[in-house]
Amino acid sequence: MHIRTYIQAPFQWAAIFHKEDMRFTHGYRGLEWYDSASKSRAHHLPCKVQCSNCYTPIMDEGRNMVLLFPTLIEGINTKEGREAFKAECHIFYSQRVVEFRGDGLKKFEGLDGKSPLLGDEGVQ
Prior knowledge:
The protein has one helix at 79-84, and strands at 15-18, 31-34, 47-51, 57-61, 65-68, 89-90, 106-108, 117-118. By secondary structure, it is mainly beta.
């Protein structure tokens, strides 16, 4: 009997972009999609995008936005690159599993700008 164990991180470093503000230098060649709702590899939005060769997750693609993992961006491992992708806020802070008190960042109950802003203690 084989038991699958899924390990999940308590948070992730991700950047959200408007799709019109980014491009892949080689188009969609080498990319593969996964639609979790239909469990298919068809390109239906929203979907997950991964490398078709090594299956490394690249981003989640929505209708107008993408959630991209900054570690995949060329130049991120420089002082300027890290500063460009420095966290601006915490979203879904009401569901947190790790405290970030005193970090000086805004904490939103849900999505930033669309849900109540929480105090540093995580309450309104």
